[in-house]
Amino acid sequence: METYITLALAIVTAPLFPGIILKVKAFFAGKQGPPLFIKYFTVMKLLRKGSVYSTSTSFVFKLGPTVSFTTALIVLLFFPFAGSMPLFSFHGDVIVLFYIMGIGRFFTVIAALDTASPFEGMGAAREVFFSTIAEVTIFTILILFYRLNGSLSFGEYFTGETHISPMNASGALLLFVIVALFMVLLTENSRVPVDDPATHLELTMIHEVMILDHSGPDLALIELGSFYKLFFYSAFITHIICPFTFASGAVNGLIFFAILTCIYIAIGLTESIMARFKMDLVPQFILTSFALVFFAAILTMGVLQ
Amino acid sequence: MDTFVFSLTVLLAGGLFALLAFRQFSLMKAGYIALTVSGSLIGLYAIKVPLVDGTLVTFSITWLHLFTLSFRLDSLSAFFLIPIFAVCPLAVFYSFHYMDNAAQRGRVAVNYFFLTLLIISMALVATADNVISFALVWELMSLSSFFLVMHDYQKKTTRRAGYIYFIFSHVGAMFIFAAFALAYSYTGTFDFLSFADIPGNIKIIVFFLALVGFGSKAGIFPLHMWLPHAHPAAPSNISAIMSGVMIKMGIYGIFRLYANLGVTDLIFGEAVLTLGIISGILGVVYALGKHDLKKLLAYHSVENIGIILIGTGIGMIGIASENMVMASFGFAGGLLHVLNHSIFKSLLFFGAGAVLQKTGVRHIDQLGGLMKRMPTTGKTFLIGSVSISGLPPFNGFVSEFLIYYGAFHGLTLGGSSFIFTMLAILSLAIIGGLAAACFSKVVGVVFLGEPRTEKAAGAFEPGFTMTLPMILLAATCVVIGVFPEPFVLAAFQGLKSIKTLHLVDVNEVAMIVGNLAFAARLFLGVFVFSVLIRKFFYFKKEITEGATWGCGFTQPTTKMQYTGTSYAISIVDFFRPFVHIRTNYSGISRIFPGRTTYNTRVDDIAETALMDRIVSPVLYLLAKLRWIQHGHIQLYIGYIIVTIIVLLLFI
């Protein structure tokens, strides 16, 4: 039962949290900012509309939003929100899920290339480059987790007897993971300092420029997909910070959403106090995250012996 | 074995028929296709029994009264025979509309004959059971494929490619024969099974000598140089067979030798894994840097051979450290990737051949918008691209998942094995990401957007004999991805020939693969759900068409589209020490600049190193000895006499 409740909560509340980021940014800019439910309004508005398709595009363009939405949704089905059992889980599911996210990216990218627009091609090229490096960080984290407790699925990481916890003997290594994963979160979800979701200059964008030509319900699906993706990464970090092993499910849930909100606030803070990097600094930024977790993985050689 | 020999006989009859009936062009092609397809089907039937219950089938013949040529069909051979008998008939079928120049009917007939020889020799390589028979059919395979590469022999580039291939295949063969000779000097018999009796340190030399030879056939970096030359030069159906099937014979050689030597040292696994990592990463990086469609696919073969070797290396390390979960899944992933790669790579080469035939253009930056003009080719190519990028729910992911699964279970090892396993996982992740980058480039630039040239704009769908094999192969990609169980179990069955490997329980394998299949089906289910949601929200909505948003620019041209070169350059640049990027930029000098040019090229470091460090010095040295060769017959006879006299002194 808890499984269904937390999953439903995740799916329903995911669009709420980006509103928090906007509020934090508005606070720092000394503005009132948009309402907290702005993303719900945006999605509703888009769903009511029709679409304009470019004459250059083929069926691939329409496939892109659907596939990226699908992949973002599936990942949520495997995640143990607030320490409850995930809806689906099997030994090795993390590999499948990160590859499923890969197929979402593949179709977003080729949908962008389908428009014959030079800007979208540019965004696509950057997206595949940066996400390839980010993938290396992710897999190093998986290696580290396997070394820590021999598990290979989100369910095994965060539920059960041998869950990953900062309180364990090698919990200090998780600090590296938290920092690295936050950097990957910023990269994969096109946040400042890697990308700027608010900019209106197409040349400087990565993710936003790829979806310039989408409109109506298609754009709504993309937006929903990106909310789910951000929610997944934030929840991932939340679970590493705090293992949800409290007796009551309600307490678990409350603490989960509290920490989750903190992570979104942290994203908002980062966006407020940092400028975006020059494009050639971005690979170095992602490689830093890799170096952190790689170091942690090497340290396990000493810890386990 | 009778059915197996019968299938080869039918195949041979097809080749001879093509030679005899070449004057009737269409009849010759139809008859050849019918015989080859039926021969291959009989062959598939023949390998069913050894693959299912592992019974051995053997036959031998005496040759020149001295040697016994013996052949043996076990489960490992049977697994490698699947791509041979499944992909080759499709490539032959494809050739009906692909080789449609009736003026060249004689040459097409010769091509068919050598193709038959290639298919038969590959089937025999996979079953050869002693040194002599292996060497014989290996040579036959190299020579017949050489003639296939030389199909367009009037072109200078083709001749050059053919010679490069010839040199590489024969230098490779030399290493293999050296390994066999060394083994023979210790065992005294030609039998493969006696290899187990060689002393341990000699086994290492034998293995690594043969690894060079098999590696040059398989296309392991840096012995891969012939691939990017030979594949673009050969006709596309031949490239499909050579890249999809023939290079796997090198992998077969490594598997078979490893099984026969019965070695369990760590060094073998670590060496193979390292070669796999290098081939995998550099293969895909060079593929990103290349913009000739077929050359790019050739580099992807290097990459996929890398993935196969990573799996094999994981398996060997697993055996060395007695971690049988790691060993079983590593080997099984590598073996299944052999089959998977043969499917999607031949599919992609068929697609490239169709594009080439209808546009005459190989450079991807001159194509574009073909999805609308060649929908079947485009859609099947898209499926092939997703599969080769190793993305679920297609077949490439199944084998990569098995390798990952094996590698992750090797992470508990200590010391150097841990480092190697970790590097294997990380390089698989890099390869996966870069392959997706490369194929989003190919699909996006070639098939999507607007056509960049007149030639691309005038393309149309090829004949049904070309599209049908592509549809079949694309369907197979999906089937293996969604129903992987029988294929994974077949790979596990094939591994039973490796005696040092104690396979994990079948039920455990079935459970893991079942989970994988579940994930693929779940993906399809959620995908259908999303499509329905989308349909619901678009129900009775206003849909309009317009131009692509040009960010306020009102005069866009198709030349403004992002090119494949710019798409890939930042990634290639990231790997700069291992990749040579040469740029020529004329620069802008005056206030009203003249014609400005910019071009960039990615050079293969292995090739430049070979040219600069080995070929040039040797040529320089040999040029100094040119005076020996002067054209006076009487002096040549003098050389012979002097040589004989000198040799006589040693008797």
Describe the structure.
- The complex is a heterodimer of chains A (305) and B (651).
- Chain A is mainly alpha-helical and 305 residues long.
- Chain A has one domain.
- Chain A is built from twelve helices and one strand, in the order H-H-H-E-H-H-H-H-H-H-H-H-H.
- With 651 residues, chain B is mostly helical.
- In chain B, the strands form two sheets. Chain B has a two-stranded antiparallel sheet with strand order 1-2. A two-stranded antiparallel ribbon of chain B has the order 4-5.
- The chains are: A mainly alpha (305), B mainly alpha (651).
- At the A-B interface, strand 1, helix 4, helix 5, helix 6 and helix 10 of A face helix 15, helix 16, helix 17, helix 21 and strand 3 of B.
Indicate the radius of gyration of chain A in whole angstroms: 19 Å
Helix content of chain B: over 70%
Radius of gyration of chain B: 26 Å
Main beta sheet of chain B: strand number and arrangement?
2 strands, antiparallel
SS class of chain B: mainly alpha
Q: How many structural units, i.e. domains of chain A?
A: 1
* Total strands of chain B: 5
Overall 3D shape of chain A = globular
Report the order of strands and helices of chain B: HHEEHHHHHHHHHHHHHHHHHHHEHEEHH
Q: Termini separation of chain B (Å)?
A: 48 Å
Largest interface: A-B, 80 and 77 residues
Helix content, binned percent of chain A: 55-70%
Largest sheet of chain A: none
Strand content of chain A: under 5%
Structural class of chain A: mainly alpha
Give helix and strand order of chain A, one letter per element, not per position: HHHEHHHHHHHHH
Unreliably modeled segments of chain B: none
SS element count, helices of chain B: 24
